Structure formats: C-alpha cells, structure tokens
Write a sequence for this structure.
C-alpha cells in the first residue's frame, strides 16, 4: 500500500517499511525486514519514492533501528545518501498492547517522541485496533489519553494520525472530543475493504 502527501510543489509517494522486501510468508502483509531494511533505501531511490514509512512492530523488537542511537544514525545516513525524507511512522505496538492500560505508557511514548524528533518525522500513526480497539461503546475512554498524547506530540511539532475502524459518525464525535489541531486520521482502504467482506 502506498502512502502519499502533498507539499506546495508536487505529489510525493512512499511505501511502508518491508513492502520492498520479500515477506517471510504470503499471509504476512506487514513485517519489519530485519535482514534487508538498509537496502530498502536504495530501492526507494531507484523507484522514485520520496520516503519510507517506518514502523514499530506488534511485539517489541530491540533490533529495529528505530530503538537505538546507532540505528537512528544509520537511518539518517541512508536518508541523506539516497536523497529521501523522513515523513511518517506507524506504531503497530498498540495492536497487541492496550493503549489504555499499558503500564510503561509514559516511558514508551516519551521514547517514541524523542526518536521521532531525532529523525524529524512529521506524522505519527497510531493504530487503535485489536487490543486497543475503539468502538461505539468505549471510544470516550480513549479521549483523555489521546488529548494528553496529542499535546506531547504537538510540542515536538509532530502530527498524530489515528487509524481505527470506527464508523464515520462515532469517529466525528471522537475528533470533536479530542479537539486538537495536530490530531488527524489515516484512512486505510485495505482495512475498510476487508471489514465490508
């Protein structure tokens, strides 16, 4: 799946990390290319992409370069070498861990913000699915934490984009309740298509 954004000059395209590498199984759509992540910068450049959307896996992976100073420096080097930009980051960690009850929430999110700032990433995508699933019945419970997290990201000049399966009406209510300038949405056409099946 391609991601895109519009700047004042043109339309730029990117891809989610791992999509330019062979998946370990046909059943796995999104994965971190552990043995191949550096080569994806070359692939991006050769195919005229402008960015790679980095992501945190459902299960914490200490070998993901996003979590170490050395890894972040490698990303910066490769981004510069291949004339790419650091634009977005998708956090799948909360798919397997509750956004509302994660014990080390502040420590985890502070690290996220610090590392996103180091890379000058502009958009943080929060996937509120499965263990963190938002519904008509529970969406209001997410509001205080989303407001607080959005404020922290805003101080770092990072936008918070929410990925959720809420219906349009409930989603609008959530947006109005959070009511933050840097709070927006991601529309995943693949997820919406699967949900309708």
């Amino acid at each position: 799946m391609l991601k895109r954004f519009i700047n004042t000059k043109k339309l730029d395209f990117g891809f989610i990390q791992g999509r330019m590498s062979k998946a370990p199984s046909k059943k796995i759509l999104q994965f971190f290319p552990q043995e191949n992540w550096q080569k994806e910068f070359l692939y991006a450049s050769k195919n005229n992409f402008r960015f790679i959307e980095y992501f945190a896996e459902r299960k914490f992976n200490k070998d993901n370069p996003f979590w170490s100073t050395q890894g972040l420096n490698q990303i910066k080097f490769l981004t510069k070498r291949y004339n790419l930009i650091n634009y977005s980051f998708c956090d799948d960690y909360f798919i397997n861990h509750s956004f509302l009850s994660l014990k080390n929430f502040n420590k985890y999110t502070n690290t996220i913000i610090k590392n996103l700032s180091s890379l000058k990433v502009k958009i943080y995508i929060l996937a509120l699915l499965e263990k963190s699933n938002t519904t008509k019945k529970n969406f209001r419970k997410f509001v205080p934490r989303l407001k607080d997290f959005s404020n922290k990201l805003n101080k770092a000049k990072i936008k918070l984009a929410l990925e959720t399966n809420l219906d349009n009406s409930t989603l609008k209510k959530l947006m109005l309740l959070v009511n933050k300038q840097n709070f927006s949405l991601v529309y995943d056409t693949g997820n919406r298509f699967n949900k309708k099946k």
In short: Residues 119 and 125 are 15 Å apart (CA to CA). Residues 14-19+32-196 form a domain with the TIM Barrel fold (CATH 3.20.20.150). The chain has one domain: 14-19+32-196.
